[in-house]
Design brief:
The protein is α/β, with parallel strands linked by helices. It has two domains: 275 residues, Aldehyde Dehydrogenase, Chain A, domain 1; 187 residues, Aldehyde Dehydrogenase, Chain A, domain 2 (3-Layer(aba) Sandwich). Helices cover 39% and strands 22% of the residues. It contains 16 helices and 20 strands. The strands form five sheets. The chain has a seven-stranded mixed beta sheet, with helices on both faces. Strands 9-8-7-10-11-19 form a six-stranded mixed beta sheet, with helices on both faces. α6 links the parallel β8 and β9. α9 packs across α11. The longest helix is centred in the N-terminal third of the chain and has 20 residues. It starts with 6 loop residues before the first strand and ends with a strand. This is Aldehyde dehydrogenase. It comes from Streptomyces lincolnensis. Belongs to the aldehyde dehydrogenase family. It holds the Pfam family Aldedh.
Length: 483
């Protein structure tokens, strides 16, 4: 790609006030394309366009909105390989990940929200005695989901397809309009999503996309008076700033923030399953995912074997060209992020951790690569144990008894997704219920895509996915009448 991408505002493709900037392939360090840099005024214009389109779109029949989403899913599938190649080039994800977990999941999510679900439900009637509020009566009630209005969707760089669509599809299905502000590292895929929705029949202003490297672009998308809700995926630090702005204006928020996923591995665990699950941190998005089991608590009786097997697993993974079919670990998103992750590995050494695998930069001609790294002999107070590294780095520390394992697992600022491995299912579920996390995987890192997703503590506010996303992007209205 060499063409200069335009912004999508109010149904028109417009030239950006701030010019264009390079989007770099993390594997080759070559130019993928040129992304537009919006001005603050252009972001506010996008929000105003979404406000203007909000009323008509909210009154559109749910079946018609669903049909737009279904057509978008088909259009994405029709250009599947092209879109996957772009996603791979922008993010450095392996070809398999770009196809199945980026573009494939995006199409599936549009299709998921193309089915109409009930937006109202009856409340049991209540018998009221005569009094100051009127005569005795049987009061009926109905709860109705109504659209919030204009939703700003600020998305993460690790998945420029599934993450935006996970916000946009349920928001549109509920009758909201959206302004999407993609991550600056890989916005081109998000504009392809907008093209698909435009071709699918989304009216002008229903979907808007504005991008830029400047912090002012995101700030304008949050502070615009036309915006009713902000849905954000990203760092806890940025989420805190968004929360402050939204709090002042009483705007609705859905925040999916950082994570330091803890895997509690008991003595009786199936080690092969645990190693394969934890090992996804090394390969899946090269560890750039907030749900990764990056903090491993191994019961003393299995600690040495787990470290040995994880080290062997990490050493066998092929690091290299994401387009090669046998590559398992691609690059991280940028040189700056590679430096950040490497600084954490060095910090771990200084703190007393043992580098059991990796720890060095792979000898490749280009690209922002980091070898899958295992840090053993960690302690609870180390920064590498407590802070989100967001790279292919796993920290392992021991525990003795179940109670200590639970205590250590909860000793963190984060609480997105934790994991428990044990052959004793009763114990696994007992421990799961004690973990302060929005989700817990029992003997798996797999996901149920209808289960609620979100975090405790500094990992976020709110829940989405499945029907929970329809609740997230709606207000609930009560209608009451005398029966």
């Amino acid at each position: 790609m060499t063409e200069e991408q335009r912004l999508f505002v109010g149904g028109s493709w417009v030239e950006p006030d701030g010019g264009h900037y390079e989007v770099i392939d993390p594997a080759t360090e070559r130019t993928v394309g040129w992304a537009p840099e919006a001005s603050r005024d252009q972001v506010h214009a996008a929000c105003a366009a979404a406000r203007e389109a909000s009323g008509p779109w909210s009154r559109t029949k749910p079946e018609e909105r669903a049909a737009v989403l279904a057509r978008a899913a088909e259009l994405i599938r029709s250009r599947f390989v092209e879109y996957a190649d772009l996603a791979r080039a922008e993010t450095g994800a392996t070809a398999g990940t770009a196809r199945s977990l980026q573009v494939g999941v995006a199409a599936a999510r549009f299709q998921r929200y193309a089915r109409v679900e009930p937006a109202e439900w009856a409340i049991p009637p209540q018998i009221n005695e005569a009094g100051p509020m009127g005569k005795a009566a049987v009061m009926g009630a109905l709860a109705v989901r109504q659209p919030v209005g204009v939703v700003t969707c600020i998305t993460s760089y690790n998945n420029p397809w599934a993450n935006p669509v996970g916000k946009v599809a349920p928001a549109l299905a509920m009758g909201n309009t959206v302004v999407v502000k993609p991550a600056p590292q890989d916005p081109l895929s998000v504009y392809r999503m907008a093209q698909a929705l435009e071709a699918a029949g989304a009216p002008p202003g229903v979907v808007n996309v504005v991008s830029g490297r400047s912090v002012a672009v995101g700030e304008a998308a949050v502070d615009s008076p036309d915006v009713d809700m902000v849905s954000f995926t990203g760092s806890t630090a940025v989420g805190q700033r968004i929360g402050e702005v939204c709090g002042r204006a009483i705007k609705r928020q859905l925040l999916e923030l950082g994570g330091k996923g803890t895997a509690v591995v008991f003595d009786d665990a199936d080690l092969a399953s645990a190693v394969a699950g934890i090992g996804t941190t090394f390969s899946f998005y090269s560890g750039q995912i907030c749900t990764a089991p990056t903090r491993v608590l191994a019961q003393r009786g299995v600690y040495d074997r787990l470290v040995e097997q994880l080290a062997g697993y990490a050493g066998r993974l092929k690091v290299g060209d994401p387009s090669a079919p046998d590559t398992v670990v691609g690059p991280v998103i940028s040189a700056a992020h590679r430096d950040r992750v490497e600084s954490y590995v060095e910090l771990g050494r200084k703190e007393g951790a043992t580098v059991a695998a990796g720890g060095e930069r792979p000898a490749l001609d280009s690209g922002f690569y980091i070898a899958p790294t295992l840090l053993a002999d960690c302690t609870p107070d180390m920064r590498v144990t407590r802070e989100e590294i967001f790279g292919p780095v796993v920290c392992v520390l021991p525990f003795e008894e179940e109670e200590e394992g639970v205590e250590l697992a909860n000793d963190t600022d984060y609480g997105l997704i934790d994991y428990v491995w044990s052959a004793d299912v009763a114990r696994a579920f007992r421990v799961a219920r004690q973990l302060r996390a929005g989700g817990v995987g029992v003997n798996t890192v797999g996901r149920n895509m209808e289960a609620p997703f979100g975090g405790f503590k500094k990992s976020g506010v709110g829940r989405d996915v499945g029907s929970y996303a329809l609740h997230a992007y709606s207000e609930v209205q009560a209608i009451v009448w005398p029966g």
